[in-house]
Amino acid sequence: MSEAELGILLLSARVALAAMAVSLVPAFAIAWLLARGRFPGKAALQALVTLPLVLPPVVTGYGLLVLFGTQGPLGRFFESVFGLSFAFRWTGAALAAGVMAFPLLVRPIRLSLEAVDRGLEEAAATLGARRPVVFLTVTLPLALPGLLAGTVLGFAKALGEFGATITFVSNIPGETQTLSLAIYALMQSPAGDAAALRLIVISIVLALAAVILSEWVARRLQRRGGNGGA
Amino acid sequence: MAALEVDISGRAGSFAVAAAFRAEPGVTALFGRSGAGKSTILKMIAGTVRPERGRIAAGGRVLFDSETGSNLPPRARGIGFVFQEDRLFPHLSVRRNLTYARWAGRRTGMRAVEEVVALLGLKTYLDRYPETLSGGERQRVAIGRALLAEPQILLMDEPLSSLDRERRAEILPYLEAVADEARIPILYVSHDTDEVARLADRVVAIEAGRVVAAGTPAEILGHAGGEEDGPISFLDGEVVAFDAAYGTVLVETAGGPVELSANELPAGSRIRLRIGAGDIAIATAAHEGLSIRNQLRCEVEKVERRGNSAEVLLGFGQERLTARITAKSADALSLRPGLRVVALIKAISIERTRLLPTRYRGG
């Protein structure tokens, strides 16, 4: 693997990891609300969360540009409060990847939370456990397979995200050019076919490794008696 | 003693419940048909369903009082709850399940885990996971888990109803052991006459969400026997002697001595005897030369004809026995209230049910 290829791979990994790191907790919270909450507007929230999955990625990318661009309201807010800018930076790529992966993260977590037997939580309460303890010792471990499935799915999506990313932060080598964007760029140049093929093989190997790893972990959890969930 | 006092009314869905009773240490059965509201009452005591009005207190500690507005959450009520389904945590080993109240509930343990493990015969399962256990084994773990929560009250909601007959028979001795050694009130919800007869010190009968009767198992269950066996009689007594050569035990009851076949029991043990109505024969005078070991002097209190058979209620000292004989025999002996008769019971047809702890004597 050449240094350039390694750089692309590391950037993609950084983008995908950052995307998961920021979206995992909100995704779990939303999944919890959708699984357990009873409030007006639940259907609307459900629809909103699903939106990035059904919208053309270009539209999502455009939306991000409007909201998080240098002149966008949220973009200005993050810039002035945290000194964090998204436009044409890898952080923007991570944001785009996180938003696109969000629905894929929420759904399996929601399903596995719905599959957790509330009777077990009730039993834990009669045994003296406080609500946060019940969550940590019963609900979370039982929802773990779903959480894992969601994370793998979300990570894979974040790693391969294309449309929203290129719309939002463009295709800048070394900054926003992730694996998919690099392959796309190489395919545009007449001499890039061989290099593109190498990257394609790398991404296939990567995807296979991720799927096998997640299956293995899921099976281990299963053996420990956790429920399937997703 | 830390008795449980309950006086509540409320509803679960459209079903109304209004019950007042007291449960002393020992086993109090909430007995009644399915849908009578027994489980709802239990949930109100556990704190998972809120009563509309009333008061629940355990040993002076108020768990719920609608007047003062106090309402402790389930975790703070000091209860152990055994559910119909075992509700074991599938992702935890048997050991982690058993000690859940210790490491997650912060209940400080007074009793050793090994003691409960031994009581329920769980030693070989400790490192296994619930899904690898049979239904009966799982329910035993659930009982142990509740006991290790150091409860001041143990609530059991039909813990055997999800098990088949064989599993029940396998688990009942363990329940008896729990009942015998517990110094706390145990509320046992059941619709099963056999279970209640074996386990309960007192019975509170529930119908349509209300307490319709309360008393000893003999008083409440006397006429609740299944159709095929007829009513069942209960005699509580104390072991006086054990005859090792023949394997028989002599028990002194409130009515007089009774002999039965049984394994060795220490003299002084409290024991409950259970006699099916069909196993009691009636004679107008004592007989010599019979194989039947028990000839109990009784007085006929009531004769009730049921088709071709007759149920005869007999006063045996302060106890009551019910015999089922043919209507023809009842007429031939001209049984009528006040007549002095002898009840004949084979030692082998008396079932020993439960050893009552000495301290609940007469309970």
Task: Write structural notes for this entry.
The complex is a heterodimer of chains A (230) and B (363). Chain A has 230 residues and is mainly α. Chain A has a single domain, classed as MetI-like fold (Orthogonal Bundle), CATH 1.10.3720. Chain A is 79% helix and 0% strand. Chain A contains ten helices and no strands. In chain A, helix 1 runs parallel beside helix 5 and helix 7 packs antiparallel against helix 10. Chain A starts with a helix and ends in a 7-residue tail after the last helix. The C terminus of chain A is likely disordered. Chain B is α+β, with helices and mostly antiparallel strands and 363 residues long. Chain B folds into two domains: 218 residues, P-loop containing nucleotide triphosphate hydrolases (Rossmann fold, 3-Layer(aba) Sandwich); 129 residues, RNA polymerase II/Efflux pump adaptor protein, barrel-sandwich hybrid domain (OB fold (Dihydrolipoamide Acetyltransferase, E2P), Beta Barrel). Chain B has nine helices and 21 strands. Chain B has a six-stranded mixed sheet, sandwiched between helices. In chain B, strands 2-1-4-5-6 form a five-stranded antiparallel sheet, covered by helices on one side. A five-stranded antiparallel sheet of chain B has the order 14-13-12-15-21. In chain B, helix 5 packs parallel to helix 6. The two termini of chain B are 14 Å apart. Chains A and B meet through helix 6 and helix 7 of A and strand 7 of B.
Which keywords apply here?
heterodimer, A: 230 residues, mainly alpha, MetI-like fold, 0% strand, B: 363 residues, alpha+beta, OB fold (Dihydrolipoamide Acetyltransferase, E2P), six-stranded mixed β-sheet, 37% strand, disordered C terminus
| Poorly predicted parts of chain B | 359-363
Average predicted local confidence, pLDDT of chain A: 89
Assembly classification: heterodimer
Percent helix among the residues of chain A? over 70%
Strand order of the largest sheet of chain B: 7-8-9-3-10-11
CATH homologous superfamily identity of the largest domain in chain B: P-loop containing nucleotide triphosphate hydrolases
Q: CATH homologous superfamily of chain A - what is it?
A: MetI-like
Distance between the termini of chain B: 14 Å
> Would you list the SSEs of chain A in sequence order as H and E?
HHHHHHHHHH
